[in-house]
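Quick one:
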Amino acid sequence: MSTQLHIGEVAKLLGITPKTIRHYHKVGLLAEPQRTESGYRLYSAGDLLRLQRIRRLQALGLSLKQIKTLLGEHVSGQERSLRDVLQSLLTELTAEIQSLEEQRERIATLLKEESIEILASSSNTSPTLEYVKEHFGEHLSGVSEEVLKLDAKVFSQLDAFNWPESYHEGIQLMMQNVAEHPPLYQQMLGLAERITALASLPENAPEVDQLIEDVLASDELPALFSMQSELLTRIPQMGSTFADVLSELTRDTLSPAQLRFLEAMSRILSDSSKREEQ
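Output:
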């Protein structure tokens, strides 16, 4: 009675295809067995056991290269090597599971929103905003929740990119200006509150025009222009293409009414700058 099996019979016993077994031969995982006079491969019980080990190690996540190395070792060293490989796989799987959990939470959070923003930050925090809170938290005590949410939205979008060092220098300089000029900060805070209030209004809302008039009638415009000029002087790179792209990205997070106000102020600041140069 024959104790050897043909490749089709072996494949059926293991739940794989003959092509898979041939591949194991090709990569050196399984030695070539005896053949019949007609050239058909014949597999023994030992071959079956080796194939079973290969399949089980693959199911644990080992690559064929790792399996080949492991099964090529002396029996006494196989367990130690297998333990090391499995420990490494466990570490990788743990990290992957954590990443998948975070991805699942982000998707679940997006599904809870009334409007899904694909470009929204993948994190609930902004490193830049956290920096601002850490170093100038006392200056944020009077800031409303709505303003903080808008800042978080803007900074989160900007933080998704690897800006040149001048961007971070600009943030630091703006924070220094806040620390050195408390009255200017109070003016900017009041302006930020009113800009935030425009978020739910239509683009042609009269509140936009009123805010423009109020700013022009106050001393906020010269103060803002002075701060912008100082930053451009101390960091020339902020006047580069990077600054233009940064500005466009910031605008993408704002409502039509907020955009109309900022565009009007930008034109006024530009005109003021030209007059100063003349």
